[in-house]
Amino acid sequence: MAITVNIYYRGTNGNARKFAEEMVSSGVVRDIRAEDGNLRYEYFFPMEDEETVLLIDSWQDQHSIDIHHASPMMAKITQLREKYDLHMEVERFLSDETGIPATDKAFIKS
């Protein structure tokens, strides 16, 4: 069962965006995406909140997350998070193996 974690990074003076940019430019994002079990690692910027960055981080299972959390990548992430003085809000979701119900598909344009 896939696990998706939404992490809202919040800061001031554009620091959340600077954090995401440095995560990409330093190669940390590339390295995380290459880890076994990583399904998605993408940053998004809310239109109405310039001081927040949303990370959508998906993993194959809890074991994959545990390995990631024990990796050297976490020290790099923590160092950058502290550098930019960011605070976090975290949401966690488990995949719905049944898929999208037909009643919902009527509202989806492919």
Description:
Helix content is 37%, strand content 28%. By secondary structure, the chain is of the alpha+beta class. A 4-stranded antiparallel beta sheet has the order 2-3-1-4. The longest helix has 12 residues, at 72-83.
List keywords for this structure.
alpha+beta; four-stranded antiparallel sheet; globular
> DSSP strand (E) fraction?
25-35%
Helix content: 25-40%
Strand order of the largest sheet: 2-3-1-4
Structural class: alpha+beta
Please state the CA-atom Rg, rounded to the nearest Å.
15 Å
Helices and strands in order, then pairings?
Elements: E1 3-10, H1 15-25, H2 28-33, E2 38-44, E3 52-59, H3 62-69, H4 72-83, E4 87-94, H5 102-105
Antiparallel strand pairs: 1-3, 1-4, 2-3
Explain briefly what this protein structure is.
By secondary structure, the protein is α+β, with helices and mostly antiparallel strands. It is built from 5 helices and 4 strands. Helices cover 37% and strands 28% of the residues.
